[in-house]
Amino acid sequence: MMNEKPIPSGSTVLEHWREELSVSLIKVFGKKKGSKYSDLYNEAFPPGFERNFSPSKAAEDIRNIEKLREVPGIAVNLYRDSSKGITEFRLRLYHVGAPVALSDILPVLENMGLRVIEEVPYNIRAQDPLDPVWLHDFGLTSKTGSSVSLDAKAKECFEEALQHVWCGDTEDDGLNALSLEGKLTWRQIFLLRAYCKYLMQIGIPFSQSYIEEALVRNSPITRDLIFLFESLFDPNKARRKSDIDSKN
Question: Quick one: how far is CA 232 from the chain centroid?
Answer without folding.
Answer: 32
